[in-house]
Each structure stands twice: as C-alpha cells, then as structure tokens.
Amino acid sequence: MDHAAHLALLLAADQPPANGLPFRIFIVVSVVGAVLLAWFLLRGYRDNG
C-alpha cells in the first residue's frame, strides 16, 4: 500500500459516522407511528354520548 492510500484510510477512519440522518428519520417515523397507533386505539374508549 502506498503512502497516499494509507493517509486516505487514516483520514477516512478519523471521520465521524454519517450525519445520523437515517437514524433521525427512523426516530421521527417511530414517534409519529406511536402517536397514530395510540390515537387509533384510544378513540374506541371515547364516550359516544
């Protein structure tokens, strides 16, 4: 392995992981899904009178 490739690997290893956007999307979708599920389940307990 030449010096430039080794330096590139070191710089790539030093970078933080991806900006976390997929994880943030997963969290938001999970929270929205939980809220919708709770609304769907709890609306059956509402009084009709």
Note the topology:
Layout (H helix, E strand, L loop, with lengths): L2 H12 L6 H22 L7
Keywords: Membrane, Transmembrane, Transmembrane helix
Low-confidence stretches: none
Number of helices: 2
* C-alpha-based Rg, rounded: 23 Å
Total beta-strand segments: 0
Per the principal axes of the C-alpha atoms, what is the gross shape? rod-shaped
Distance between the termini: 78 Å
Largest sheet: none
Helix content: 55-70%
Percent in strands: under 5%
Structural class: mainly alpha
Short key terms for the protein model shown above:
49 residues, single chain, mainly alpha
Any overview of this molecule?
- Keywords: Membrane, Transmembrane, Transmembrane helix.
- The chain crosses the membrane at residues 23-42.
- Helix content is 69%, strand content 0%.
- With 49 residues, it is mainly alpha-helical.
- The chain has a domain at 18-49.
Concise structural overview:
With 49 residues, the protein is mainly α. The chain contains 2 helices and no strands.
